[in-house]
Amino acid sequence: GPCYCDQACARTLDCCHDYAQACPVIPCVVSQWSAWSGCAEPCKTAYRVRTRHIIQEPRNGGEACPALEERAGCVEYWTWQGTECQQSLIPALITAGGFGTARKKRAAADGNERAGYCVEFQLVALAPGCLHSQNWSSRWMRHLREGHTVCVECQHPALHPSRLRCHGDGTGSQQNQLLHWQAVGNHRCKGTWRRIQQLDTCSCPSVQSFLFI
User: Fold this and answer.
1) Which of 89, 113, 99 is CA-nearest to residue 212?
2) Beta carbons within 8 Å of 61's beta carbon, 6+ residues apart
3) Percent of the chain having pLDDT more than 90?
4) What is the spatial distance between Cα 89 and Cα 179, in angstroms, rounded to a whole number?
5) Could you tell me how far CA 192 lies from the centroid of its own chain?
6) Same domain, 49 and 120
7) 57-109, pLDDT tens digit by residue?
8) Half-sphere exposure of 192 (CA within 13 A, CB side)
9) Does residue 3 fall inside a structural domain?
10) Most CB atoms closer than 10 Å: which of 52, 83, 111, 140?
11) Cα–Cα distance measured from residue 183 to residue 141, given in angstroms and rounded to the nearest whole number
12) What is the CA radius of gyration of the chain?
């Protein structure tokens, strides 16, 4: 009888003898990723999205389609009306200070080297997630301690080209105002701090020195 291209026969073991030739496996084919969307919400840590669509559905037991949507973390520092977000609403994104050397080399090679600065903060509170960073790349978060003074350096490319400062550095905040920070690489590691002062260079020990993202 006629050969029906239905992969169910592979489970019931009654496929035609020439099933593989008459009904070749066709895997799913998807398009390229679209461009990333804008940040989902302004003035807070949110996400952006990119999508792709199915060009060819899988047939005859072909490989299933992969995910059609992908999300990535982001922070938008401007409202949809075009005004800058209030500093207290935006978490400063920080990472280990050890990345600074590679940044400086890359900036010098690109001819984009600009004078940066450092801001001292006193850590007021931090989430328990900072103490449970298992990944080797996030172990620097264990050095964060309530009450300690930390230094956060503002370098290119985090240095805003026209304002010559990093977002989340606390510029314009009132004395003793609590500001929010978020560690990159572990969404559970975040907290608050108070801005102490701005310096040309950081003076904290290396384990208490960080970078604005």
Assistant:
1) 99
2) 7, 10, 25
3) 25
4) 8
5) 19
6) no
7) 998 878 899 999 998 877 776 777 777 666 555 688 898 887 766 555 555 54
8) 10
9) no
10) 140
11) 8
12) 25
135 and 184 together in one domain: yes
CA distance 213 to 195: 17
Partners of 210 in beta bridges: 96, 152
Residue 122 vs residues 49, 70, 113, 145, 196: alpha-carbon distances, Å: 35, 36, 28, 10, 7
Rounded to the nearest integer, the mean pLDDT of the chain is 81
58 with 102: CB under 8 angstroms? no
Q: What does the alpha-carbon distance between residue 190 and residue 192 come to, in Å, rounded to a whole number? A: 7
Q: Which are the contacts of 197, defined by CB distance < 8 A and separation ≥ 6?
A: 119, 120
Asked if residue 82 belongs to a domain, the reply is no
Distance CA 5, CA 60 (A): 6
CA-CA-CA-CA dihedral for 187, 173, 211, 40, to nearest 10: 40
Please give the backbone phi and psi of residue 69, each rounded to the nearest 5 degrees, phi first.
-140, 140
The answer on 119 and 31 residing in a single domain is no
Q: How far apart are CA 212 and CA 160, in angstroms?
A: 11
